[in-house]
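name: query_chain
kind: protein
chains: 1
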Amino acid sequence: MVNDSSKAAETQRARNVADAPRVADLLAGAATLGVAQLDAQLLLQQLMHCPRAQLLAFDDTAVDAMTAALFHAAAARRAAGEPLAYITGLREFWSLPLVVTPAVLVPRPETELLVELCLARLDHSPRLVADLGTGSGAIALALASERADWMLIATDASTAALEIAAINRERLGIRNLALRAGNWCEALPAEHFDAILSNPPYIAPDHPALRDLAYEPRSALTAGADGYADLFSIAAAARAHLKPGGLLLLEHGAGQARSLRQELLSLGYADITCRQDLAGLDRATAAIWP
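structure:
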């Protein structure tokens, strides 16, 4: 009787494995939904807790029912346009794995240009640097990880965003970063800074690009009627917080460099330069407070 029960159980397990979907089946199903191949692989890799190379090398591996169901749900979310980072809860920035949620923007590769420019313009000596509207903490954490002798202060008006930044700071073991709640420069202490950086909202509220950003916080994307409100506000306020010779670095839209330059000149900034991103689009403007 016991042997008969064991054999029956083994037979049922064998049938379950035989009927279970394979890795290749799940990836093919995601493709029919319109999910990009790499996105599908990354979703399944996370659920199966294995390297992507292993996933692809053994794509005939059977997948249990729970994992398959979770993958189907994740693939449907991605097919509907939800950012991959919100589904997986992670996004890499400057080679740092960051936790992200819909409370913050998804960090983007072009924003790494701000980090690159700041590191190039300031030497390794102790510096005080501010990141305004830090969101997930991406810019500040990247700089802090590269310059142990710098002190970073990151601000955000959103307490939910600051909670995500704090989680990332602890996960990465960053000790030279302080977080402050407040709108732009209002949260900065009395000290004067060697550099102030920001990737503020700079999209006009009627811009067609917003259709592809529906899942991300609108307050972190749009500014005023034409997208310039926060750029101009930060530029004006930063003057009271920069040291003489201090650096202001702002990310902006591809068509905003000329107007931003004119505003910076009118505010008294000097040595204004614009750098393009890898796509050849104007993306970051640097200016010096004399």
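note: The first strand starts at residue 90 and ends at 93.
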